[in-house]
Amino acid sequence: MNTIVLILNGNIRRHLMNGTAPLQLKMVNLTALGSLAFVISLSVLVAPSPLQDWEEKHLLYQRAGMKGQIVDIKVKPGDVVNKYQILFTVSAMKMELDVRAPIPGVVKELSVATGAHVNADDVIVVINTFLPRNG
């Protein structure tokens, strides 16, 4: 968590921001509204942490594949999945589509529950594809 501290006319304002990376000040605008009043516009860039950047490179966002209803979910967060393993099933107009893992990994999160109505491009399962090698 980062804290931004602004001191203006002796008044201290603290604002918390998500993220633990260093902050880089991008822009500050001060606009006078009267003898003592100011409007402050502050823009801050938060650099991604190296761990967050590394993790993003190893995530697979598995989408629904077609518009329909999720009728079965075969995995849960923490499950190790193999290549071609069925992750979930989408049903539409009496047709069912088994969506399989294209590569092995570990299920990081599920974004829907059984019975949810989804669009083809909705992300259903997030898989961490980094698997430590033994040996």
TrEMBL record:
Signal peptide: none
Lipid biosynthesis among keywords: no
Residue intervals of the Lipoyl-binding domain: 53-128
InterPro entries, alphabetized: Biotin_Carboxyl_Carrier/Decarb, Biotin_lipoyl, Single_hybrid_motif
Keywords from the named record: Biotin
Superkingdom to which the source organism belongs: Eukaryota
Originating organism: Ancylostoma duodenale
Lineage: Eukaryota, Metazoa, Ecdysozoa, Nematoda, Chromadorea
Protein name: Biotin-requiring enzyme
